[in-house]
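Q: Could you predict the 3D structure of Alginate lyase 2 domain-containing protein?
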Amino acid sequence: MRRLTYGKLTSISIIGLTLLPLANAADLENELAQYKSQLSATLSQQKAPSQNFDLTKWKINLPVPDHRPSRLGDVMEINATQLNDVARPFTDYFWFYTDPLTGAMVMKSPNTAPTTANSKNARSELRAMLSSNDNVTPSDPSNNFAIAANPQRAKYGAIGGQLSATVAVDWVSTNGDDSKFPSHSVVVGQIHGAKTEPLKIYYRKLPAHDTGSLFWNYEVTPKDVSQRYDVPHLIWGETNLTAKDLAPKDGIKLGELFSYDIHVEQNIMTLTFIKHPGTRFSQTKTFTTDLSKGLPGHPKDVGFANDTMYFKAGAYNQCNQGKEHPIWGTACNNDGVEAGDYTQVSFYRLSLKQ
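A: Sure. Here are the predicted structure tokens for Alginate lyase 2 domain-containing protein:
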């Protein structure tokens, strides 16, 4: 059973912290709007996502059943060739599309829908695929990356890599058990392992709050992966707010831009987050950790030296209708988008280097 721990994070170092004086609300809103307009000016509102963004090394899963005979019973999957088809680049006008006003790449996901194996949470999410051959399976090393400490590193498509994005979370579910941290949250970026998730970047906002929190989880992985659990790392806001708490004073609003950069070089993962990017009032926080080593204070953690890894980016909705699991059973309704039972994320910048 996976659990969450809030222990001391002795292996995670904050190596950079830049905090400028707070802006008055009017100046900040004006500069944020100007920066969003600048990003929008580089995008076309009339083009498909793959015509605005380099998606040549990505496939996408969507929260609907696949209609093709070869994938009946599975979630919809669009491979890199289909996603980037020159004549008919892929768009789903409800779950994956270009915003007609901003040109942003929008990914949307309901609280309950068909999803991938081993997950109860619906998603509209890109998955990096490093091989240029669509017939190579996702699990093949050529489609994934490893860290330098991996003894089989020569088989992989890359050693490390970098994923950068500037995003706005437009919406998160307005219902769910607020005592469970995944409720009212969405994962906007990941490093996924073969059976684990070394990194998940969360945005979470409670319905009555005007600002939400940003944090990331490291998954402690023992030899017995059924005993794995997550350790959260706060960026802005709080990780465990409930309805009785006040909104985080240093939080991020729905629709407000923030940036993340995930850089894995050799064995070291460096994470850089920017709040209020493109303004005089930007704030930067940077974290670093060695993925080849277990987390100090967690003696059963074996690290990720032998793991297969890949990047993901999108709207991985953390709300589901389950109630039993002490962490992941968020008891969210699924009464449709009109009722607010969904998640939506807009990408204004997305870059993969591998």
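Q: Anything worth pointing out?
A: The chain has one domain: 13-353.
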